[in-house]
Amino acid sequence: MKFGVFLPISGRAAGPETLTQAARQAESLGFDSVWCADRIVIPWEIKTPYPYAEGSSFIVPPDRPFFEPLTCLAYLAGRTDKIMLGISVLVLPYRQPLYWAKIATTIDHLSKGRLILGVGVGWMKEEFDALGANFPERGKVSDEQLDLLKVLWSAERADFSGAHYQFENIAFAPKPLQQPRISIWVGGEGTRAQRRAGEYGDAWFPYFVRMTPKELKRRFDNVRRAAEKAGRDPQSVRLNCCLPIELSQKPLDWEEDRLRGSANQIADALHGYEEIGVEHLALQFMVPRWPERVEQIERFAREVMPHIL
Fold first, then answer.
1. Positive or negative CA dihedral for 120, 123, 126, 128?
2. How many CB atoms lie within 10 A of CB 179?
């Protein structure tokens, strides 16, 4: 199993020195990837329930910095040597696809093939409204962007005609350095996301899932059935996920659907994910202050990873 760690691109600690330190620390500790979350604006009032936190309230206050993730990954491409650079997840319908695809391809080249492209449809209506993006149609827009990407990254003379995007006889260069393409990990937990992962993804990449490994496996079976229905090899779609983690000094009351407890408890839980076929875990250490988060990341590398790798 491979491990990634989320970077501090939001909050008071966010900045070039901290980002560089965090990415290089992860690389030196043996993590396989670092990850940036995606947010463009944070409205002062958010009525849309946040699906990834208890209480359904978004966890980053609007008056805190939140850096643009693709820019951060481009910066880190030149500050690291071998660690994979991931976004979890790029909200597709926020952005014009020709523009973000050019940025992603550029990062792929600058990093010498180290970009992982996590993609999703978004959840916050207020942010869509501020950006002038179509919230009700976000799933269809995202699917069309993924169809468009197939053409853009392969054809010498690219043509596309869809409900939302049209172009003809355009050149798009360079093509991705990774072949046959930049790896696409499709985020989202529901049935539509499972179908999208099966049709388009190199991996299903659910985010902050509160479900047991058994339930995660059941949903992943849906992904592979969707892949087979789409005429793809179902074995070509991998199971990866993002999980929050709380690493304590002492054992805690165990909850099967949470990654929370002592180093031994966390290691035991990770074996459960390993058994159902999870290949890559992106971990977000749920400690508010950066210095304490650094300490937990170091402890995880020292006390947990040797029992899994």
1. positive
2. 9
pLDDT digits (tens, 9 = 90+) for 177-204: 999 999 999 999 999 999 999 999 999 9
Q: Which two tokens stand for residue 261?
A: 């407890």
Predicted confidence at residue 273, as pLDDT, reads 95
State how far the Cα of 5 lies from the Cα of 297, in Å rounded to an integer: 8
Q: How far is CA 240 from CA 253, 254, 274, 299, in A?
A: 26, 23, 10, 22
What is the set of domains in the chain, with CATH numbers?
2-307 (3.20.20.30)
Instruction: Indicate the pLDDT class of residue 32, thresholds 50, 70 and 90.
Output: very high
Q: Where are the alpha helices (DSSP H) in the chain?
A: 16-29, 69-77, 97-110, 125-131, 138-152, 191-200, 213-229, 263-275, 290-299
Is 93 within 8 Å of 128 (Cβ atoms)? yes
* Nearest-angstrom CA–CA distance, 123 and 253: 32
First to last CA, the chain: 6
CA–CA dist 65, 32 (Å, integer): 26
Residue entry with tokens 């991998």: 238
Question: pTM to 2 decimals?
Answer: 0.96
* Res 54: pLDDT: 76
Q: What is the pLDDT of residues 58-70, one digit of tens each?
A: 888 999 999 999 9
- Per-residue pLDDT, 210: 78
Rounded Cα–Cα distance for residues 199 and 227 (Å): 5
